[in-house]
Amino acid sequence: PLTLTGHLFLEMLDVSSAKVVRGSGVWDGCVKEFVICRSPPVALVYNVEEHGRKFFKRLVFTTDASRSLHYLPPFLQPCNNVGSRIGAWKVSAGNVKTASSSSLKLPSLVIRRNLSSKLGEQTLIPARLLLGVVPDALLDDYVFWQDEQQSAGMPTVVRGYKTARAVARESGAPLDTIVVTVTPHGNDASGLGHSDAVATIERVLAVSEGEGACQQIVPKTSASGLVLLNSQFADAASPLGQILKAMLRLDNLSHLLVWGTPSASDAAPKMKRIELPRLGLSFLVETADAGADAAGSISGVVLRSQEHDGLIVSNCRTAEIEKLLRGMPHALVLQDDSGDLYLLASAAACPSRPNGPDDFVGSNGELFSCAVLLDRGDSEWLANVGQVRHYLYPVHISKRFLVLPSLAASLSLLVFKVLHRCYEDAVRLAGSCISDTPLSVEEAQIWRVLEEIGSDTHPDAVGCRLHISRATSGSTMRVPWCVGTQLATYCQLLHKISSCCRLSVDEEMILLDEHGQATRQLRNRASMLSTLSAAKPGHALQLKVEQAPRQRKEAEFDEIEDKSCLE
Fold it and tell me: DSSP letters along 227-257, please?
């Protein structure tokens, strides 16, 4: 628990019709600011840091990693709230006790530039001072400079210029720039610029003027830009909240940008475009027709994919589709004009079990917990994923199974099914996850996740591992567990393993021939199966069983039968 000392200030705010409480206090010499929202339920903790005699706030903790504008290392906690179901988990991120640079008394360096008389002097704002205030997706691609030419009480303008890496990655795309307008409101009793303010983030087309050291990026005067909507505190019951509920299956708010067209009045901007830059996905927001299929719209709007022509986001949730979505919390349902369905899944989510591979009981007492932690910002994982960071699975016309587009997509689906303990589905997929050639970097890292299930003690997990071992036995892929040990456990737990996860006689005999000579138990099992498979109806069976060696008697034990006391 975090104990704040000194004065604790609370203030009720109304942001996008969501009731928000904001407060501040001091912990261990560090000023903390926290924001608590009721709908959606999320709490955010910021460090207030000084840089160049100005104050900034940086996010250090959130109770919901998916609704944070900054990536922090996530972790799972059991949800013990009143009304929560048994086995429910919540994803938190960061460390609330993180110290600030101000409390550590670290020096700061202020960098200013003056490119032209039109722009005037500008001050660099390091990205670390905007963490949790501006989405990471913008901080990754833009460098922000604050204009210093302003009058008292006038809005502050912060401009974001694309980095050279972002320009090279988006070669051929129109050049744009970010304009952040910070408008103060209310009274500033301190006179130090501490009044509340409202910021508007706008993306506008830009042109390059000048050359060399004098080159500068300026917005086009005739271009109308897009305004970034406040997704962090969007009410869960609002249209934007309903759309975010679907989009958050693919990525976190830190890399989920909802753009709208600016409004001349005080009305909220109209949604126009949704971008997920980390996954290379974007959707156009269109108003649904009056007679349109209800399954193809969410809250009266249609989300049309820009990368996959003709596909829109679908809210079709039949029993068959729900079964296909089982074990895929990172997937979204799409459909085309003819009603054919697809599952769009993120390739950037690194899955793992929160309690480690050997802990089969959840920290909230749930036996064989199905909780899976999705780390969407793992730098090593993202570096190994290809340029296309998503998988598109066509749903078969029978709606009973998915068509697997690639080996990486097959392995990813297998891993998620196993981690969510959908062992029956994993057994069916095992035969489709085979490669006779060396695995790519992306495929190899997905395959390594299977190491987490190597010690899963669930009986069906043992059968699932043996099915995977049998499917890959003739390929270059090597399973990260001892097949002989798994066979011995399989024989002991056979009566507890579901029929769908059991091996056929032929499959078991093949594995026993390859790995079943290590122990007497496996050799006897192989002998029994061989005899039964060769037996003819009505004929007696002769089964050769290898007996356990007789125990050698201890040398000092009395072997003479003495009955003299009975005479």
Answer: EEP--TT--TTSHHHHHHHHHTTT--GGG-E
End-to-end CA distance of the chain: 80
Question: According to the model, what pLDDT value does residue 380 have?
Answer: 93
* Residue 127 pLDDT level (bands cut at 50, 70, 90): very high
Rounded to an integer, what distance in angstroms lies between the CA atom of residue 393 and that of residue 334? 10
Confidence of residue 168 (pLDDT cuts 50, 70, 90): confident
% helix, strand, coil for the chain, step of 5: 25, 30, 45
Q: Which long-range contacts (CB under 8 A, 24 or more apart) does 328-332 make?
A: 328/413, 328/416, 329/249, 329/372, 329/374, 330/249, 330/250, 330/374, 330/416, 331/249, 331/393, 332/246, 332/247, 332/249, 332/250
Up-side HSE of residue 282: CA atoms within 13 Å toward CB?
11
Does pLDDT of 250 surpass 90? yes
d(CA 494, CA 411): 27
Burial class (CB in 10 A: 0-12, 13-18, 19+), 319: exposed
Instruction: Give me 161's structure tokens.
Output: 């210029």
Model pLDDT for residues 518-551, shown as the tens digit of each residue: 788 888 888 888 888 887 787 777 777 777 666 6
pLDDT of residue 326: 93
305-309, 368-372, 375-379, 498-502: the lowest-pLDDT one: 368-372
* C-alpha gyration radius of the chain: 31
Q: Which two tokens stand for residue 509?
A: 């005999």
What's the per-residue H, E or C state across 416-468?
A: HHHHCCCHHHHHHHHHHCCCCCCCCHHHHHHHHHHHHHCCCCCHHHHHHHHHH
Q: How far apart (Å, rounded) are the C-alpha atoms in residues 388 and 281?
A: 9
CA distances from 262 to 140, 162, 303 (A): 24, 22, 19
pLDDT for the residue numbered 292: 61
Residues 157 and 204: their CA atoms lie apart, in Å, by 14
- Pick from 434, 474, 18: nearest CA to 236: 18
Residues whose CB is less than 8 angstroms from the CB of residue 300 and which lie 6 or more positions away in sequence, other chains included: 239, 287, 288
The predicted structure's pLDDT at residue 319: 93
Strand pairing partners for 34?
A: 23, 45
Alpha carbon 553 to its chain's center: 61
**pTM (2 d.p.):** 0.85
CA distance 127 to 136: 9
**Dist. CA 167–CA 170, nearest whole Å:** 5
Cβ-based burial of 394 (10 A; exposed 0-12, middle 13-18, buried ≥19): middle
Burial class for 428, CB neighbours closer than 10 Å (0-12, 13-18, 19+): middle
Looking at the predicted structure, is the pLDDT value of residue 358 above 50? no
Among 457, 407, 397, 462, smallest CA distance to 429 is for 407
